[in-house]
Structure formats: structure tokens, C-alpha cells
Specification:
The protein is α+β, with helices and mostly antiparallel strands. It has four helices and seven strands, in the order βααββββββαα. The protein has a single domain, classed as Alpha-D-Glucose-1,6-Bisphosphate, Chain A, domain 4.
Length: 158
């Protein structure tokens, strides 16, 4: 399954890059994220609780950020497993200056197995767009003023 999207975050490109690299901001903004810990440079272990229709579960896995071209783009590799599904995917995040901030384009290619895959690509595509929308709105809030970035994320962990 492939998903794509574009959004504009009203902040300079370098600031958007920095917040997209912050484990604290990522944990605060990923819907259902319970844990997002760096285990090696650019490699993170995560635990996320998600539900799509009647299929809900907790998933644990690894996220690797690579091929970084600061502050323009990076690639993600994700592998995860839960009691009722597996996921393996790759993604690209591309940033570019825009008149009113920074344009963020994202593309993903995911392979999903288990009952969650039976929900179907049409529903999963809509869910992916909603989740991405929530994520980027949260990231923009992280950048919009006090509290910002890692400070805001640390406060949500407390």
C-alpha cells in the first residue's frame, strides 16, 4: 500500500527539520505513541497503540532514519509487530521553503499483515491521511510558541 500527502507548516525549514528529528516531539505527536526511544544514532524503538475500525492493538517496532540531507529530506524504515498485525514500510519526508513556511511532502510504502490488513486499502488510506494530519498539526503546535519542541514534549511525558 502506498500513501502520500503534503502539508505546510508555518515555520522556517530548519526549525521544521529540527522538530522532525526530536524524539520527544515525535513521541508527543505520533497518535497513540507510548514510547519512542533512541537506541543508536538515527534508530529508535517505539510502542504505539492504534485502532482501525474494530481492529485495535499495541505494536512495538523499530524506526530508522537514514539518508539525511539536512534540512531537505530523509528516509524512514519501519518494522513492527503486534498481537494482531505486522508492518514493514519505507517512507520519505521532503521539506522545501514555502511563502508561508515549509512545505512537507511525505510518501510511504507499507506492507501490512494480519487482521488489520483486511480492513482494506481504501479505509487504511483515509486513516493514514487523518493520522498524518494530526501528526503535522501537532508538530506545528510544537513550533508555534512557548512551549516549543522538546520542552513541550517533555511536559507531556511528565
Amino acid at each position: 500500500m502506498n500513501f502520500t500527502g503534503t502539508t505546510v507548516i508555518r515555520a522556517p525549514q530548519q526549525q521544521v527539520w529540527d522538530v522532525l528529528q526530536s524524539p520527544q516531539a515525535l513521541q508527543a505527536c505520533l497518535p497513540g505513541c507510548k514510547r519512542f526511544e533512541e537506541i543508536a544514532p538515527g534508530t529508535y524503538e517505539a510502542t504505539v497503540t492504534l485502532g482501525i475500525a474494530a481492529v485495535k492493538g499495541t505494536y512495538s517496532g523499530r524506526v530508522t532514519m537514514g539518508e539525511r540531507d539536512e534540512p531537505n529530506s530523509y528516509k524512514l524504515n519501519v518494522e513492527g509487530r503486534g498481537s494482531n498485525a505486522t508492518i514493514r514500510g519505507t517512507g520519505t519526508i521532503t521539506l522545501a521553503p514555502a511563502a508561508d513556511g515549509t512545505t512537507v511532502e511525505w510518501t510511504t510504502e507499507a506492507q501490512i499483515g494480519g487482521p488489520i490488513a483486511s480492513v482494506g486499502q481504501r479505509l487504511l488510506g483515509g486513516v493514514a491521511k487523518v493520522v498524518a494530519g494530526e501528526f503535522f498539526k501537532c508538530m506545528e503546535r510544537q513550533l508555534s510558541g512557548p512551549p516549543t519542541g522538546a520542552t513541550a514534549a517533555k511536559r507531556t511525558e511528565a
